[in-house]
User: Which sequence fits this backbone?
């Protein structure tokens, strides 16, 4: 049964006639959905100050279940900077699996023991992993932690395994020349320190050395970023009355994130050059944990009283706690410096509905950074929640010639 009220049909039809995607000449249902919903009035009036950007892909299926895509956007502008926060962890997990496949060393895979050495001052070394059932640090365990609880430490280990030069070269080759992933997360490091990445060793379970990678010093030259935002920021507990510079921060366009996720969910419908070089087992693994909830992991058992069940699925639940069983969302969320980002493939197995949806919004009404006074709860999460549900309501009433067979995305947890 359809469990959500549908948009008023006549109002939506009028809005569809008025809303045109001028890049394609076709109707833009995304703009119509926004205009037909009173919950978005404030967002539409202040879309530029909120730095709102949205990308939505309508998915239709052919008789043989082959997907066909129609992409729409709202207020999309690559020159408008947003901080991608933890969303950069998604391409890093994909590149880590790709690098393992490229090394093509017998016995080396995502379950091999990964030892991280300290190669320079202020670098971490990792010989064990308390979040793993057997205590071993592995690429697989790091990926699980990234998608379940957005572990910064897990991201940092994979960033160090890849190194800046590999990351940038691979992103460029896949058609993302302006994407920049240049630093670790949560810990403060200079650009020079982030350019140096740790020595890494991989072992099998008997202790046999499979692969040794020396410390790397990157000479990557990044595309220019000119993004100084707001009217002030806190530094060492003091307010600085100047815009906050993001010039040395990560940058990935929202549409690029959107296409990366599309390539993971639909590699067969993605041009070969833009695909991640993953095995079928890799795709199943990454999708499984991209769509999982913390309590679906056997070890460790996350306390769902403090680790909210659905808070990593903002484009449908906002900051909500309870997930609905017929909905499965494969995504990566990010939030920092007042920016909130979510990139998601939403699947409603009961109603045979699917779509791709990505959005970002700035939740910093006072224009001050590093003051821990952001509007996530009052602006960002409610916006993302209602956006995902509004698109879902539209998808429930949208006519399809062929219903999708979604069984390949149904995972066992």
Assistant:
């Amino acid at each position: 049964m359809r469990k959500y009220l549908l948009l008023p049909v006549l109002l939506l039809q009028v809005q569809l006639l008025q809303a045109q995607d001028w890049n394609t000449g076709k109707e833009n249902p995304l703009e119509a959905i926004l205009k037909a919903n009173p919950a978005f009035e404030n967002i539409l009036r202040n879309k530029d100050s909120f730095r709102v950007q949205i990308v939505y892909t309508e998915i239709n299926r052919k008789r043989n279940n082959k997907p066909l895509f129609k992409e729409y956007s709202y207020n999309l502008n690559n020159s408008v900077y947003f901080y991608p926060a933890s969303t950069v962890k998604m391409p890093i997990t994909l590149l880590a699996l790709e690098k393992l496949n490229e090394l093509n060393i017998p016995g080396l895979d995502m379950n091999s023991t990964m030892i991280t050495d300290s190669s320079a001052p202020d670098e971490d070394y990792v010989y064990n992993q308390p979040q793993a059932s057997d205590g071993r640090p592995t690429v697989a365990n790091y990926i699980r932690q990234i998608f379940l609880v957005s572990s910064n430490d897990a991201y940092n280990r994979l960033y160090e395994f890849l190194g800046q030069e590999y990351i940038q070269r691979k992103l460029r080759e896949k058609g993302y020349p302006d994407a920049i992933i240049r630093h670790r997360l949560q810990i403060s490091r200079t650009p020079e320190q982030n350019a140096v990445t740790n020595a890494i060793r991989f072992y099998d379970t008997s202790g046999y050395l499979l692969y040794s990678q020396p410390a790397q010093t990157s000479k990557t030259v990044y595309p220019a970023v000119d993004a100084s935002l707001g009217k002030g920021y806190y530094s060492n507990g003091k307010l600085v009355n100047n815009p906050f510079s993001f010039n040395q921060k990560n940058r990935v366009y929202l549409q690029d994130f959107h296409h990366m996720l599309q390539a993971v969910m639909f590699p067969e419908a993605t041009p070969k050059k833009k695909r991640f070089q993953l095995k079928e087992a890799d795709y199943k693994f990454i999708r499984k944990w991209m769509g999982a909830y913390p309590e679906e992991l056997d070890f460790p058992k996350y306390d769902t009283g403090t680790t909210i069940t659905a808070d990593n699925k903002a484009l449908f639940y906002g900051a909500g706690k309870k997930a609905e069983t017929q909905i499965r969302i494969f995504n990566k969320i990010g939030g920092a410096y007042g920016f909130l980002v979510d990139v998601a493939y939403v699947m409603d197995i009961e109603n045979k509905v699917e779509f791709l949806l990505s959005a970002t919004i700035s939740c910093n009404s006072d224009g001050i950074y590093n003051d821990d006074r952001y509007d996530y709860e009052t602006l960002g999460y409610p916006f993302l929640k209602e956006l995902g549900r509004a698109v879902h309501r539209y998808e429930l009433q949208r006519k399809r010639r062929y219903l999708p067979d979604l069984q390949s995305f149904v995972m066992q947890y």
Q: What stands out?
A: The first helix runs from residue 9 to 18. The two ends are 24 Å apart (CA to CA). Residues 1-25 have pLDDT under 50 and may be disordered.
